From TrEMBL:
Keywords: Initiation factor, Protein biosynthesis
GO MF term list: ribosome binding; translation initiation factor activity
Keyword Protein biosynthesis attached: yes
Species name: Methanosarcina siciliae C2J
Protein name in UniProt: Translation initiation factor 6
Described function: Binds to the 50S ribosomal subunit and prevents its association with the 30S ribosomal subunit to form the 70S initiation complex.
Amino acid sequence: MIRTVDIYDTSIIGVFATCTEDIVLVPPLTKPEVCALLEDVLEVRVLEILINESIVVGALSRGNSNGFMLPYGARAEEMQKLTGIPVGILPDRLNAVGNIVLANDSAALVHPDLSDKALEAIAGTLKVDVYRGTIAGIKNVGMAGVVTNKGLLVHPKVTASERDALENIFGFPVNIGTTNFGTQMLGSGLLANSKNFVAGSETTGPELGRIEEALGFLD
């Protein structure tokens, strides 16, 4: 099975796309063969959209089975019609939602400087408990890790105290890894749900094996 791909001819697929259990959002003009691969491997609907007229859909959005969060200025009604699930707008100056929110269907870790109002909006839309924190001292937690309903993979320099917090928040052992031949901000190169994953084209065999193990795809 092919598990590596490019979007817009680049391996940073997590910047351009985002994945939930049922949906992958990609920018317009994503190659049909890429959309077909994502649909087949991840068992999802692939939907094309711009967010605030931008193609960096993965950096600007975060979703789970319950809803999607978008940045201020985005068209929530259009997104809700497209996805069929609730869509919320992040009421905060920090609004690259995909960069600053790490979430699955049970919990979310967010940038430590997000406002209480922003946390309430995330909790209300995604229907999860929301916690502030960092990964490897990095505030952009949405790109410093990947979490599904089966596992958690994060930046190799995660600290012991952060590990404890992450395990308490998500209920999974914390695994470390990289994508795209050593990229530690691994969320930039990985799309995953509980069914499968797709990584950027530069991701190596050992990196793929680590992802398989961390996200629960090894028998």
